[in-house]
Amino acid sequence: MDAARLGARRPRPREDARARGRWLADLHGRWASLPLPEPRPGFPDELVVLHDPSSDALLDAHEAAQPGWVGLLRAHLHAARAATAHVQVRPRHLIHGDLTPWNLRVQGNRWTGLLDLEFTRPADPLADFALAWRGTHDDVIHGYADVRPQSDEDRALIPALWWGHLLGGALRDL
């Protein structure tokens, strides 16, 4: 009996993360001139999360009950805060917020559709990178740079914005 009839899963094709980065650059170019909607409730700006004193107060309130977890969150909060201390104002555009392989429709090598717009909101376009990068997909960033080069300063902010996103959710759920 062959494996397909036994219910074996076929391996997924490997994603071309660099192409996803180029498609993200294309999306940002297409959406750059759109008027911005109102901010969405429940989606705080990553820089606000990082620099809000209430983030520290919330961690302080839960430290005794969850010292390991809170210690990890605090370490990342302080590292991301230090990395963004010099940042004043960042551009805001409409972002997708979840540009993952499963939210793209591709035929051949062409991007043909975009799904899951529930995280679309006005935000720093670098936040879209952080969410597409997810700490591991460097080729997304390289692909974007193929189309729209970024400064060293912008690239350096991506991990801090990723942690701003993660911390926003973690702090909300503490």
From TrEMBL:
TM helices/strands, residue ranges:
none
| Positions of the Aminoglycoside phosphotransferase domain | 12-139
Q: Which domain of life is it from?
A: Bacteria
Output the SUPFAM superfamilies linked to this UniProt entry: Protein kinase-like (PK-like)
InterPro entries from the entry? Aminoglycoside_PTrfase (IPR002575), Kinase-like_dom_sf (IPR011009)
Q: What is the protein named?
A: Aminoglycoside phosphotransferase domain-containing protein
- Source organism of this protein record: Deinococcus actinosclerus
